[in-house]
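Hello, quick one for you while I still have it in my head. I'm working through a protein record and want to make sense of it properly. Would you mind checking whether the tokens look sensible for this chain? I owe you a coffee for this, so here goes:
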Amino acid sequence: MTLAVLASSCRSSTEGGASAPAAPQFEKGLFAVEAEGGSKGGEAKVRLRVAKGAGDLNVIIAQVEYDTARMKLKNCDIDPAAGKQLLSLEQTPGKVRTIVTGSPDPLPAEGAVFACSFAVAGDAQAGPTVVRIEGDVSDTEFVDHSFREEVTLQVRE
């Protein structure tokens, strides 16, 4: 009997003009993204850091997007000081899914969380390329926050 009521409730909540989900409202000031390197044929690294005053952040689910014509993912690693674990997978070229999870303790204030390293193609076009990190983070009160940060990496000769 309970399952029938639940099924009826689910059906009625999706019938009759259900609207599309609202676009996320991105919060600024939760994270900073840093870039280093970028010489043709060399390596570039992009690092996600907790921003000053961001609060007690805990679990992150994010996607790292980059230009596959200029770079290829080598790996993503958690910063040991973060006290968490990182799972990452490049499901499609140029889009790396990441999950940062672990203890219930917050991430260190203003600390590095994770970094992704990229091999810069030897024939990459010189100039700026954008790396974007977008996702959701939960704080220690279980409130979710959407974020989008990006950094411009200079591919050099």
